[in-house]
Structures are given as structure tokens and as C-alpha cells.
Design a protein that fits this description.
heterodimer, A: 13 helices, B: about 270 residues, MetI-like fold, globular
Chain lengths: ~300, ~270
């Protein structure tokens, strides 16, 4: 009798508990869900939606199908900023990775003043890009700037570094490499410290040279870190545009403009939010593709620990 | 031979390090010397605070400082509360829709608010928040990154500790507050440092949503101040630049190890 009552009450208690767990969990998540919906999911969907509509200057906006996209494909500035962005990524990603690795190897060794070295390499990471841009802007100022003064003292002529389409990208790339390399260094440093010292001892017993050991043992072991950093650096190259606002405004003649900066210009200077939405869809697609690559190639591998 | 190659490497490392510090060192030089020494490196050049005084008087930097401090405090406080609650739910509750919801959170890791400027501007405008500090902060409060980091940390909390607290009669909130939060201290510090540095330095979004002295953070204030049209003296601009980066730079110099470790921990996930 008693046992029959118990067994009838038990599922109800269990169900009640499960229901309570659900309510509690959703209440805990409520603030995050509201904010994420408002500032991530809704904007993504709204971007997509607005990319299919005409601009509503005063009147109502109309569904225009793929018209904005056709316009984008015919817009030579779009192709230029996309090309610039790819050039920018190719110029900054491998260089900052190579430098980061070199820095990490140096800092990892028992070198004189290694904590000073680490400090020096990492410092640019904590500085605001906008402050950095201000400093480097002066380096590149024609005639009066530090670079030109230095070159003049060696007998070269002055040059308008940021005003010349053929040099502006390299100048910006050098600055970004300077800003980012130290940040990537710390990931290599962490990875280097997990390589067992016995490996090195064994290699030394076998008489392998340092370079051989580095190439055949260290580099392959660092591969997951390299991939991780490459993806992050690649995403950053599509995200970092602060410097353009101060240094070049995308010029001369869009020679240094990047996709996100073009979106900013189209939306807030030319007030063409429909076209800006279309460009944003392209940027989102690129970022999603990079993230998926990361998911497929990187997260499956075992890394760290 | 080995000794020799070692010293060559040490020298190369030092040259690169000094080269790396050069831009910062140069900005300090120019900020603390009269403008006629901006590009003349003379060790006998007189030191001066004049550039700072002039920058401070020419633009409302005190207000910009206050705005930035309010901004980073607001973002961090919001993030800590929102992300802790969400991470706790993901780590410790089995509920309907958990995996889908978590995947939806992770979307923000690949498509960050920095990219959604056009539509976020509309949302902020619809909320009637344009040109306020909450407008700069709100899109970043529910940080997927913070949720992810804290969830990982909370998952590692041993079950025995949770059970022990339950036996003592702690509620779900009590367990969170007395067991999970104290054990997440390292993660909180790492996330906090990264968040404060990121939002102290953030620029494009604040530039878009602010339009007045009352809401502008330091970075935007600096950009407005240093715009070439204003014709402000270079040395004064450098002084303003140094003022903008000084708090973070000093914090970094004092707590170097924590900074490096936090950036690493937060980056590796």
C-alpha cells in the first residue's frame, strides 16, 4: 500500500524537479539571451533582410531582390577594398607569426634580460590602436616626420609615405605587425614551455644540430599553435580598421581602405545603409567561413595540455 | 662556437627589443620636451610638462577619462553578472535546448559586435540611447567569450564541493556564490584584464554612437583632438596620446606577469 503511493508520487516529484531545473536555467540565461538577441542575432538577420531592400530616403523601402548585390559586384571600390584586405592579410599574418615565433624562442631561452625582452615585445599589445596610429602617423609624415628625417640624414629624398598608393599599405602593415607580433608571441611561449626537455636532451645525445631539432621537432609540435594564431590573425585583419580613421581615411583614392572601413564610410558618411548591409553580409560570410575552417581543422586536433 | 652563436642571438634579440620599444620611447620623448626638440635628440634638452598642460586645457580630457572609466566599469560589471549566470546554467544544469542555445552563444565568437555596426546603430537608436555611455557598452555585455571561459572553469569544479554546500542547505544561488565564484577567481582576473584593456582601447563603435563631450571615451576624444584640421602642435598631440595610453601602460608595467598570463589564458580558452 505504502509502496504503491510512493511509486505514484515519485515520477511526479521527478517531473516537478526537471521542470524547476528548466525554469531556473532559463532564468539564469535570460539576461544573456536578451542581450545576445538584441545585439548579435537580430542584427545579423536584419543585415541580411535589409540587403534585399532599397534605401528608404524619406519614403518606404522596397524589396529589390538581388539588386544591391549586383550593384556591389559592379562597384569597383568594393573589389578594391576586398583586394586591399587580402593584400593586408597576406602582408601581416605570416610576418607577425614568424616574428612572434622568433620572439618566443628568444624569450624562452635563458637569455640575458629575458624579462625585459618579453616586456618590450608585449608592450604594443596593451596600447590603444588609436594612440599607436597617432605615433606612427608622425613617423610617416613627409619631410618633418621621423622616417624622412632619418632618410635625409643618409642623403635620401623625402617621401609622402601615406600619400603614395604604392607605399601606404606597406606602411600600415609594418605598424600592424609591430602591434600584433608580441600578442602572438605569448601563445608560442606557452606552447614552447610544454615541450618536454627530454626531447632536447635526446636530440643532443644523438648529435642533432639546434636548427635540425627546431625544424624537425619544435616546429611540428607548434603546428596547432601556428594554426590557432593564423586564424586569429586572419580575423583581426578583417576587424582592425581604427588606424585608417586617423592615418589615411582609406586614401589616397581608397588605396588603403579595408572592407570594414568601407562599410563604415558607406553607412555613416554616404548614409547608404542598404548598400552597407549588403557589404556587411559579405564580411559576415568571410568571417563565418574562417570560423568554420577553424572549427573543422583546428578544434578537432588536440592542442595544449 | 656555441658560445659565439649565443651572444650573436642575444644581441639580435636586444636590437629587436629596443626597436620594438622605439615608438613608445619616442612618444615619451616628444611629450616631455618642448616642441623644438620633437625631432632633435639632444640629451641636454630641457624636460617640460607644458605639452600636457596645454593638451589638458585645450580639450576636456578630465571628462574623457571619467567617461572611459565609467565605460569600462559598466562593461565589466555587466559582463561579470550576465556571463556568470549564463555560464552557471550551461555548466551545471541539464535543460531543454541547452546545446542549441550554446551554439547560438558561440555565434558571437565569430561575428563580433565590432562588425555589426550598421544594425547595432539602428538598435541603439531605437532604444533611444544614442550618444550615451550605455550605448557603447550594451553590445558587449553578453560576451560569448566570457560565457565560454567561465563555463569551462565551472565545469572543472569538483562535484563533492557542490554536494557539500547542498547538504549545508545552500540554494542554487548560494552554491554559485559560495562555491563557483570563489573557485573562478583566476578566470575572473584574466577575463577582467582582457575586457578592461579591450574596452579602454576600443574605438570604432564609440566613434559611431557618441557625438558629445559627455559620452565620448578617451580614444574618440584623442582622435577628435588630434585631427589634422585642428592644427594642434605635434608635441601636444603626443602628450594627449601618452595620457590616453598611460593608465594601461602603467598597469601593465606593474602587473606584467598577470597581464601576459591573462591574455594567454583568455586567448587559449
Amino acid at each position: 500500500m505504502v509502496s504503491a503511493v510512493m511509486s505514484a508520487a515519485e515520477p511526479r516529484a521527478v517531473r516537478r524537479k526537471a521542470w524547476l531545473t528548466n525554469v531556473n536555467a532559463w532564468l539564469l540565461l535570460l539576461p544573456a539571451v536578451v542581450l545576445l538577441t538584441a545585439f548579435t542575432h537580430y542584427p545579423i538577420l536584419a543585415t541580411l533582410y535589409h540587403s534585399f531592400f532599397s534605401l528608404s530616403r524619406g519614403g518606404a523601402s522596397e524589396f529589390v531582390g538581388l539588386e544591391n548585390y549586383t550593384y556591389m559586384l559592379e562597384d569597383h571600390v568594393f573589389w578594391q577594398v576586398l583586394r586591399n584586405n587580402i593584400v593586408f592579410a597576406i602582408a601581416t599574418v605570416p610576418t607577425s607569426i614568424a616574428l612572434a615565433l622568433l620572439m618566443a624562442v628568444w624569450v624562452d631561452k635563458k637569455m640575458t634580460g629575458r624579462s625585459f625582452l618579453r616586456l618590450a615585445f608585449f608592450t604594443p599589445t596593451v596600447l590603444p590602436m588609436i594612440a599607436v596610429a597617432n605615433i606612427w602617423l608622425f613617423f610617416y609624415t613627409p619631410n618633418y616626420g621621423l622616417l624622412d628625417q632619418f632618410l635625409k640624414s643618409l642623403g635620401f629624398a623625402g617621401h609622402n609615405w601615406l600619400g603614395d598608393p604604392s607605399t601606404v599599405m606597406s606602411c600600415l602593415a609594418v605598424m600592424v605587425v609591430w602591434k600584433e607580433a608580441g600578442f602572438f608571441m605569448i601563445f608560442y611561449l606557452a606552447a614552447l614551455q610544454t615541450i618536454p626537455p627530454e626531447l632536447k636532451e635526446a636530440a643532443q645525445v644523438e648529435g642533432a644540430s639546434r636548427w635540425y631539432f627546431f625544424r624537425r621537432v619544435t616546429l611540428p609540435l607548434l603546428m596547432p599553435t601556428t594554426l590557432f594564431i593564423s586564424i586569429n590573425a586572419l580575423i583581426n585583419s578583417f576587424k582592425l580598421v581604427d588606424q585608417l580613421v586617423i592615418m589615411t581615411k582609406g586614401g589616397p583614392n581608397n588605396a588603403s581602405s579595408l572592407l570594414l572601413y568601407y562599410i563604415y564610410e558607406v553607412a555613416f558618411t554616404f548614409q547608404d545603409t542598404a548598400f552597407a548591409a549588403t557589404l556587411t553580409v559579405t564580411l559576415i560570410t568571410i568571417l563565418a567561413a574562417v570560423a568554420l575552417t577553424k572549427f573543422v581543422y583546428l578544434d578537432r586536433r588536440i592542442h595544449y595540455q | 662556437m656555441r658560445q659565439h652563436s649565443h651572444s650573436v642571438e642575444t644581441i639580435a634579440a636586444w636590437v629587436l627589443a629596443l626597436l620594438w620599444l622605439l615608438p613608445v620611447a619616442y612618444s615619451l620623448w616628444s611629450a616631455f620636451h618642448p616642441s623644438e626638440y620633437a625631432t632633435r635628440f639632444d640629451l641636454t634638452a630641457p624636460l617640460t610638462l607644458d605639452n600636457f598642460v596645454r593638451a589638458w586645457n585645450q580639450a576636456p580630457f578630465a571628462r574623457y577619462y571619467l567617461n572611459t572609466v565609467m565605460l569600462v566599469t559598466m562593461v565589466l560589471a555587466g559582463q561579470l553578472v550576465v556571463c556568470t549566470l549564463a555560464a552557471y546554467a550551461f555548466a551545471r544544469f541539464r535543460f531543454f535546448g541547452r546545446d542549441i542555445l550554446f551554439a547560438l552563444v558561440l555565434v558571437q565568437l565569430m561575428i563580433m559586435p565590432d562588425v555589426l555596426i550598421v544594425e547595432n546603430y539602428r538598435v541603439i537608436s531605437a532604444l533611444n540611447l544614442l550618444d550615451t555611455i550605455p550605448a557603447i557598452a550594451l553590445p558587449y555585455v553578453a560576451s560569448a567569450f566570457g560565457i565560454f571561459l567561465l563555463r569551462q572553469t565551472f565545469k572543472g569544479v569538483p562535484n563533492e564541493l557542490v554536494e557539500a554546500a547542498r547538504v549545508e542547505g545552500a540554494s542554487a544561488f548560494g552554491v554559485l556564490w559560495r562555491v563557483f565564484v570563489p573557485l573562478g577567481k583566476t578566470t575572473y582576473i584574466a577575463f577582467g584584464l582582457v575586457s578592461v584593456s579591450h574596452h579602454w582601447n576600443n574605438f570604432l563603435w564609440p566613434l559611431i554612437v557618441t557625438n558629445s563631450v559627455e559620452s565620448r571615451p578617451l580614444t574618440v576624444g584623442l582622435a577628435v583632438f588630434g585631427a589634422p584640421e585642428t592644427g594642434v602642435d605635434w608635441s601636444v598631440i603626443t602628450a594627449a596620446t601618452v595620457m590616453t595610453m598611460a593608465p594601461l601602460l602603467l598597469a601593465f608595467l606593474l602587473f606584467q606577469r598577470q597581464f601576459v598570463q591573462s591574455f594567454m589564458r583568455a586567448g587559449i580558452r
